[in-house]
Design a protein that fits this description.
The chain is mostly helical. Helix 2 crosses helix 3 (71-103). Helices cover 78% and strands 3% of the residues. The chain has one domain (2-104): Non-ribosomal Peptide Synthetase Peptidyl Carrier Protein, Chain A (Orthogonal Bundle). The protein starts with a helix and ends with a helix. A two-stranded antiparallel ribbon has the order 1-2. The radius of gyration is 31 Å and the shape is elongated. Keywords: Cell membrane, Ion channel, Ion transport, Membrane, Transmembrane, Transmembrane helix, Transport. It holds the Pfam family MscL.
Length: 129
């Protein structure tokens, strides 16, 4: 029974659940970025370039009789740059929030009754001396 309890404790810990949520959201975000790059950015950028080169699509681009298929590579590079930029912005924002929380000093605790009494005694002794 100890193994099952240990596994349950491990699986229900906040860090494991946070990691799972992060992986799922990251996968969904990756699909959104891929669609953005493949369906919007790539056609908008490559369309005019292909027309200027007199090509209908990238499949007709050949070098020494070999088709050069670099469209997917460009899509992956653009996707990587977008995802890296978004992650950088998110991490920078989280770090700034943490820094503000750490920098904000809390008010010093009020002196206890004993400290107040000792301070009064010290002050009285100073005036008598």
């Amino acid at each position: 029974m100890g193994f099952v309890k240990e596994f349950k404790d491990f699986a229900v810990k906040g860090n494991v659940i946070d990691l799972a949520v992060g992986v799922i959201i990251g996968a969904a975000f990756g699909k959104i970025v891929s669609s953005l790059v493949e369906d919007i950015i790539t056609p908008a950028v490559l369309g005019p370039a292909l027309k200027a080169a007199g090509l209908e699509d990238l499949s007709k681009l050949t070098i020494a009789g070999t088709a050069i298929k670099y469209g997917n590579f460009l899509s992956q590079v653009i996707s990587f740059i977008i995802i890296a930029l978004v992650l950088f912005i998110i991490i920078k924002t989280v770090n700034n929030i943490k820094k503000k929380e750490e920098v904000a000093p809390s008010a010093p605790p009020a002196p206890t009754k004993e400290e107040v009494l000792l301070t009064e005694i010290r002050d009285l002794l100073k005036t008598k001396a």
